[in-house]
Structure formats: C-alpha cells, structure tokens
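Researcher: Going back to the complex we discussed earlier. I've cleaned up the inputs and rechecked each line, so this should be the final set. Can you rerun the prediction on the complete assembly and write out the structure?
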Amino acid sequence: MSKISADIKEGLGLVQVYTGNGKGKTTAALGLAFRAAGRGLNVIMVQFMKPPENYGEHIAAERFDNFTILPLGLDHMKQRVDKEDDISVSQKTLEKAKELIYSDEYDLVILDECNVAMSRHLIDVDEVIDMLRNRPENIEIVLTGRKAPQKIIDYADLVTEMKMIKHPFDKGISARKGIEY
Amino acid sequence: MSKISADIKEGLGLVQVYTGNGKGKTTAALGLAFRAAGRGLNVIMVQFMKPPENYGEHIAAERFDNFTILPLGLDHMKQRVDKEDDISVSQKTLEKAKELIYSDEYDLVILDECNVAMSRHLIDVDEVIDMLRNRPENIEIVLTGRKAPQKIIDYADLVTEMKMIKHPFDKGISARKGIEY
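Model: Rerun complete. Updated structure for the full complex:
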C-alpha cells in the first residue's frame, strides 16, 4: 500500500513510548510524524483524550495528504466527563486504532494519549498489547501519554521519559495557542 | 513583522530547553515548529551540529513558507571534525542566530543542538545567555541538545529532560531514514 522505498519500509516495525510528566510527548510524536511524512511515509495519529478541535498541528497536517490526525476523544479541559462515556468513547477509539493498524495502509501509527487511557482503566492494557503483537510487519507504532503501564514499557522497544525539570506554572502561564496547542 | 494575532503574540516570550540522553529533543522542537507554523507563526530552526542534508524534516518544512530550517553545522557522523573548525563554524552559527533573533522577524526561534555546542565549549554559555537576555519581546526561544549547562537551566523558563528508559541498541538498530532523520 505504501509508496516508500523498500529500504525505508524494512527499517520500520518498532514500538516507541513517550511518557512522563514533562512537556514534549505529543509534540515529539508530531515532529516524528512530520519528518516521516516528509519522507513519504503514510502516517496517522489517533488521539484518545483530545476532542475534535483545530489545534495548530491539525492545521499543519492539512498540508500533507499522507498525514492525518484523528482527534476522537472527549473534551476533558472544558467539561466534566462522565466515566461511562469516557470508557465507551475510548473503547471506540481503540477499535478504530485496530482497524487502521490491521488495514496495513500506514507506515507509522501514533496512538496519542493512549497511555493515559490505559492508566485510567478506560481501555484494557492487555487488549492494547494484543493489538501491538498482531500488527502487520514493518509498521512503526508510537504510544504517548503520562503513566505508561509497566506492561507497555516491558513490551516496547524504545521508551523515553519526558521529565519536568522546570515549568512556569508559578508565573501563571497556562497553555498557549501556537505553542502548546 | 509577524502576521499572527495579538493574543497569540502576547503569549510568547519564554525560553524552553529540551535536554537529556533520551530520544525526542529535536523531534519535540520540530513538532512545536510545525504546530506553530500551522498557527501562522514565523518559525526558524538554526541547527548547530547538523550538516546541510535533506532529512525528512527539511523536506516537510518546504511545505511551509513560514518555517525554515538552517542546518549550519559540520557532519560529525560521517567524518572526524577538527576542533578548530568546529569552534569556528559553531561561532558563525551563533552569530547567525543572533542576527535572526535581533531582526525581530520571527516568533519562534529554535537553536537545535545549541546545548551540545555549549557543553563542548564550542561556543560560550555567557554569550548565549546575553543573546537570550537581549532578545526582542514576545519571541519564544527553544534550545535543544544533551547536557544543557546549569546556567542555561537556571535562566530558562521551562526545562524538560528526555530520559532514556529503554533503547534498542542491543538489537543492532541504528538511525533509520524516515524515523530518526
């Protein structure tokens, strides 16, 4: 399905995890997505805990026909989310992720905030690991979000912890348009 | 100079640092760059230790007229670099960075691998801090690279350490086209 050269395709297939309490998990996955899209890879980012809004990254991704972002989550920032709804929506997002992975149409699949969905028990860790185990060959998968479960860390090939050393919370700075979203 | 709205511009002005031995420092800065470019910010990434080659990110950046990547470093991967050359090229890169920052034409300036250049004493930490102190208002600056000097960490508003938890070195996997570059 993919138009990339065999030497690129053969290098793919790892499971990467970006976790920790620091900045840059989703952002690093985005950087990877744009880099990969630049190389011609088919890239999709499925967002678990983020609502369908036009963040800067969604606008930027529109420049690429081989990079799509699917924000399929509920809006935890602006509203109180019912736990049952959260579970149901997260489960549907996981089903969508499986469908996309098993379709074998993508070279890089990013499951944004998937770690959070697992750590909050909205989706089942073992079901995610089954999905990873059953993925087609040479698909690179990236999972982002705080509190990656130990089973995921054990299964993954590459794990990076983004650790907060200093954050300007005390200056009263919250998420900024163009920088944080 | 910038075409972005006042509410976005007013939110800018922090100094961010991505450091540590883990993956995702340059990649997170890239993700931030694409997000910001999507929002209309003028973005420039000056690369200290990277040679002018067409990595995936350079190809992707060509889709944006408001995001430029300038790889101004020497190729440390493919050749042995003479220390004097390294110092001279890094100093020129710092001069270029100053020129771009002082021009006040950019909203987001990324100094990629600048921390490495400082930690290797190719450029002077105090000179970099002077540049940061003298930056025009409402310019966001990001410094990436391992071993950020303590003075930089002290001066910065936001510091994230990318910490390697697991890396597939033992599987004999090196940098892969489309993923690592």
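Model: Worth noting: The domain at 6-171 of chain B is CATH 3.40.50.300 (Rossmann fold).
Researcher: Good, that matches what I expected from the previous run.
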